[in-house]
Design a protein that fits this description.
6-stranded mixed beta sheet, 11 helices, 21% strand, 335 residues, single chain, globular, 34% helix, alpha/beta, 6-stranded antiparallel beta sheet
């Protein structure tokens, strides 16, 4: 949400060969990466962990030894392969970070983020991305068709969904039957003052964040200690029948927020594998040398089940992800 946008955007950012450079030329890039991380990471205390310190040292070493930008990018990914937290990406710059951020709220991915199909009277909504205004439109259109055809049951397939942004809102709000306080994003101001996770009592006077702009959300989580997230039932095209959500170990980020919220609401039965456990909010910064760094600016805690990063969302019915849809269909047939 908010979340792993770079998985989708990286499709357009192929690593192209560049001219060789002198040793140390990319040191300003490496130094800026480590400084940005320490300035903006949601919990700077985590950066004193030996695992991160080794990554930091490896990043600085890359600045001295990388032969060109492409070499720096490839080796940066290797350095971060076993990172202690998710949502760190380094990409070639395409415009400024501010320009990229401003474009995200109106971004379209070209269609296909949400595809509706049918198995008899069971609707199957395959959602492969949580990013894109066209994905939001496809989700809303799917719920119109589901209502018009009077579906007996609904399967939401999140097995190949790596996250994104606010397409999660209509996906959830068309099926919840009452207001749901789902969880809270926890940022640097909270972690600077506390050495514990937030509790429900900490949220008593904190209003829910219910907007749609990702840029506005990023600003909120960097200035507010806590940013609670909630969902309201949709006013029309609401589905209140049997609901199954399919998950895999590739279900990540905003898709994990959706799976967690639907499970916590009591509306859905989750079938498949525990999700990826990559649930943070990231934003983008310019880096010298024609690069852009995406880093995590907020952690997320489910009010029902706790922290998702590094843990994932557990299914109600554990199964191989490839069998999850058949299992859901069998359960529906037995009702």
């Amino acid at each position: 949400m908010i979340m792993s946008l770079t998985a989708s955007l990286a499709l357009a950012l192929s690593l192209q060969a560049s001219e060789p450079i002198a040793a140390g030329t990319l040191q300003p890039s490496a130094t800026a990466i480590t400084e940005l991380m320490r300035a903006h990471h949601y919990n700077p205390a985590d950066l004193d962990d030996p695992a991160y310190l080794a990554i930091e040292a490896g990043t600085l070493e890359l600045g001295e030894t990388a032969t060109d930008q492409a070499d720096f990018l490839r080796r940066f990914r290797d350095v971060w392969a076993d990172a202690p937290f998710s949502h760190v990406r380094l990409t070639p710059a395409r415009g400024t970070a501010a320009e990229l951020a401003a474009s995200i709220d109106t971004l379209n991915i070209g269609g296909g983020g949400a595809v509706l199909s049918w198995h008899d009277d069971t609707a199957i909504l395959n959602v492969t991305s949580m990013i894109g205004q066209d994905t939001i439109a496809e989700i809303n259109a799917a719920y119109v068709e589901i209502a018009e055809r009077g579906a007996d049951a609904l399967i939401i397939d999140l097995r190949q969904n790596g996250g994104g942004a606010f397409a999660v809102r209509p996906l959830v709000e068309h099926v919840v039957t009452e207001p749901l306080d789902a969880g809270v994003f926890v940022s640097q101001p909270w972690n600077a003052a506390h050495d514990r996770a937030p509790q429900r009592s900490d949220l008593a006077d904190v209003p829910l964040w219910e907007g749609w702009s990702l840029v506005t959300f990023w600003n909120a989580v960097q200035t507010e200690a806590l940013t609670p997230i909630g969902f309201q039932p949709a006013e029309d095209n609401h589905f209140d029948g049997p609901l199954y959500v399919l998950t895999s170990n590739e279900t990540a980020s905003a898709a994990e927020l959706a799976a967690d919220a639907l499970k916590a609401s009591g509306r859905a039965i989750l079938v498949g594998e525990t999700t990826a456990g990559e649930m943070l909010s990231q934003t983008v910064f310019d880096v010298p040398g024609g690069l852009q760094l995406w880093l995590p600016i907020a952690d997320y805690y489910s009010l029902a089940y706790g922290r998702i990063e590094g843990v994932g969302v557990a299914p109600d019915i554990a199964a191989d992800a490839g069998l999850a849809q058949d299992i859901a269909l069998d359960l529906i047939a037995r009702r």
